[in-house]
Every structure is written in structure tokens, then in C-alpha cells.
Design brief:
The complex is a heterodimer of chains A (about 150) and B (about 425). Chain A has about 150 residues and is mainly beta. Chain A contains one helix and six strands, in the order αββββββ. By secondary structure, chain B is of the alpha+beta class. The model of chain B has no long low-confidence stretch (mean pLDDT about 85). The chains are: A mainly beta (about 150), B alpha+beta (about 425).
Amino acid sequence: MNSICISTEPEPAVATPLVLPMPQAHLKAGFPSPAEDFTVNRLDLTQILVSHPQATFLMRVSGTSMQDAGIDDGDMLVIDRAIKPRHGHVVVAVVDGEYTVKYLHQRAGRVRLKAANPTFPDIIPKDGQTIEVWGVVSSCIKRFIT
Amino acid sequence: MYALVDGNNFYVSCERVFRPSLNGRPVIVLSNNDGCAIARSNEAKDLGICMGAPWFQIRHLEQQAGLVALSANFTLYGDMSDRMMSLAAGLGPTQEIYSIDESFIGLNGVRGDLVARGHKVRDRILQWIGIPTCIGIAPTKTMAKLANHIAKTAERKPGSYPAELAQVCNLAALPAQDLDDVLQATDVGDVWGVGRRISKQLKEQGIQTVLDLVRMDPATIRRGWNVTLEKTVKELQGQPCVDLDDAPEPKQQIACTRSFGQPVTKLESLIEAVSEFASRAGEKLRKQNSLARELLVFMHTSPHRQGPQLSRSVVVPLRRPTDDSRLLAGAAADGMRRMYLAGYRFIKAGVILVDLQPASVQQQELDLEPEQEAEMPRDRSRLMVAMDVINQRYGKGTVHVGSTGQTVPVRAWGMKQERRTPQYTTRLEDVPVVRA
């Protein structure tokens, strides 16, 4: 039996294509290009916005309860389910079978969902109810020209 | 060692990720044309709905028991499967994707507690993409499949197996006596590769449980049944006979058949349909680098409906082995013209490419048809490659053979998918809405 040395911790495979720079030096016979050692990748928005490709989902915002957090009606949210939700995170939670986006507020063992708009009340779970966090919002994409 | 990672009620679980209101309710997913149940939530199983139950037989449960039935959304399932498979791959160094919701992971060289590792991967899949899975671990694939069945059953029906086997079950880690107990508690029909017929025969011979089967002599099994069942028994005894095959053999036939959304009576619509099926089959043929020598076209009326019944098929030999969608579609249309009869309401038609050969083998021909030389078909292989690339980039059917008819929504024979959910992860217009 082959003994393949791999980590004892399971690691997820990378799902997005990864572009590697390839120097073209071996193709040329004459004077080498002075830039060839400096081959780099152009910045890629996907790599900046998506840390865990498998766990990343997009949702469209409807409503104004998060406007003071810079999340407006019609914005696109990037949700990373690989991030463990913590106090202060903007999260997508499931309330009465529907998705809602709010601040996750966790203090003294109490959990509530807070809006970023004073006209919206906090969502407080009733006795025995739990708040199900669907995922943590990692970015908000706001387009001015489409 | 192998692990089998399998999504629980996979299609239903995918739907629930994007519609949390479906949690706790009986949900089923229906096959093409909303025909029969192809996935069931545990609540739907508890209602007594069987795999493959026709929709019209269980329709009343919508009113009576709050059953939710959805049309299959394969675009969504495909994307979720992709995410799940790449996370499952973290379990070990090799992976064979066996179906949309199952993959075998080779565990050679993996050290440490396999059950703990399995739970880590399972938890990650659940948290990252929301799909519950079960993992079976064992020295052979057949046993891994069995271990997976035990992991699932132990979770769904507490008390059927020891509770610690739920979700992740490693048969190799069980002491001999405990393993025997588990195999004793498992019906022989639950073994991978033992169908209903063979399981009935085995039971007539007094082989009721998996333990009974494991204790059989493989040679006796081969004499009484066949080599395949012998391999199964050897696998259950811990002797690997089924490898991880990363490149499956090319298929010996390629079929593209479909039920229509509503009955079709006109010849033109039928020709459109079979031309489309033929070009779709042609795409599959080119993908595996084969040529077809013959093509079978069939159609039939619905046995469940009133009115005159007709079922016909015709085999159209191709002049030369080909993978050219135009020639295949032409042959399918010819076949349809030959067998069509007016006055029937057809519900299903299909094209099956048979007698396949590798594209690398070409039969040389004697020059016996000089008068037709001018009509020698031009080599269209580059056209076909271009067609496949365009359709891959801009969507199915962007360029197509003329006889397949109109653009998708207008076609009379299109699929019925009244209950399909949006393509949440693959179409920008379809992403879920979150209330703020």
C-alpha cells in the first residue's frame, strides 16, 4: 500500500480556476525581455470578494432596514457560509421561513437581530425559539451603472 | 480503505437550502414532466410515498397532508453537487464521482481517526453549503456503500443500529462481534448490486441477512448465480474487486428520449422533437469520441390515457458511421416520416444511437459509387466542434440544426415543469431575495 503523506486535517479542494503566471522565456532565443521576471496577475475581483468559493452565495436585498449600514434596496450581498457568525456581523437569518438581513447582536447569552434603521424594531426570539443564521454577509455590491 | 460520501435526500436538501420554509414539511421532487417522485424528504417517506410513485397517485396528499411537490431543477442540483464534491474531496487523496450525490474517496495513506475526520468533512459540508450527508467507511467499495446505508438508517430510525454509527459509520473500526451483529441486522436486499430478483432467490435459499451472505463460499455463489454476485460477496468479505475507475468505458449506446409536456399529434412537431434529440445525442457522441452506425427512432401514445394506442419504432442505418448532428437529425426525421400515422396523440418519442465505434477507427471503402462522388459528404467535424463550443458558451440550442424548430419556449413538445424553483446559484436574475 502506498503511503501518501497528507495532512491529518481534511482540506477542501479549491473550486475556482487559479491562473498561474507562466514565464515565456524558453520560447525566445534573442535578447530576453526585461519584464519577464515580473509576470504578475491582474487583480481579480472574484479572488478579492470570495474566500471560500464553495460556501459563497449571492442574494438581492429588498427593503430599507439596513440602510444605515450601507445596505440599500436592490444591492447584491455576498454571503460566506464558511464564516462562523459572531456578535456584530451582518448576517442573513431565517425568520418565519424567510430570509432577513440584520446585525447579529449577542450579549450576556442573549441573541437578537438588530436593524440598521431606527424605525425597525429588534427581532427577539420568543421562549424556546432559536435564531437560525443562514450565513455571514462578507460584502455588499452596490452598482451605480449597470 | 474507501469512504462513500452521499447527500441525504439530495434534491430535496438542495431545494431546502434556498427555501427554508420547506424544512419540517413533506417535500418531493418530481421527474421530467412532473411524472413521478424521484426524491423524498424524510417526512414524505413517513407519509408512505415510495420512490418512483406516480404524481397522479399521490396528488391528494397536497391537500390532505401539506405535501409540497417541486419540478426537478437540475441546474441547481448540478451546481450544489459540484460544491459538495469538492468539499468531500478533502477527505482523502483520490475521488471517484459516482453519481450526482455520491462519491467514493480513496483513503490510502490517510492517518488518524477516520471517523473523526469523516465528521469534520460532514460538518463542513453542512455548514458551508447546507446539505446533510452520511459517510460510510470500509475496506471495499461494496462495504463502504453498506456502511453508508447503515449510517443513514441509524440516523433516520433510531434504535435500528447502535447510535454511534449514525451519520459516519466505519465498519473497519468495529470489533468482530459488533460487525457480525450489524450485518445480521441488515437485510440482504440492501447490499449494493443485489436487486429485487436476486434478493428473492437468496431468501428462498435461506440467505436472509448480509451476515448470511458474507458466510457463503464465493465459488458456490458463482455456480448458483453469477460472477457479479461472487464479486459482491468477495467485496463484503473484505477483498477489493471493484477499483476506483476514474475513466469509465465509453457507453455502448446513447439515448435521448423525453415525454412531451402535452400530447403531440402533428408530424412537423414530432420531426422537430426527434431532430433535437438526435442532435443532443450527437453532442454526447462527440464528447466520448465515438461514431454511430445506426439510429433508432421511436414514439408512442400514453397507455394511461383514453383513445387509440400506437407504439412504433424504426432503425435507420447510416450510410457511413458518423457523429455529424446534421446527418443524425436527418436520419431521425426520415425515420419519423416513415413510421408516422395521423390520428394518434403521442406522449413520448426518442432517439437511441446504437452500434457505436471509436472515432479513431475508419472503415476504408471501395470506390463503387462514382456517380455519387460529387455528393460525397464534406467533412463537417470542424463545424460540429464549432457548434459544440458555441452551445457550451452561450447556452444549449444557441445554434442548432434547422429541423429542430423554434426557439425553446414556443415548442409544442417542450418539457412540463410547472413547479420548478428558480436557478438560485446560476442565473443573476434568479438569486434569492433577502428582506431588509
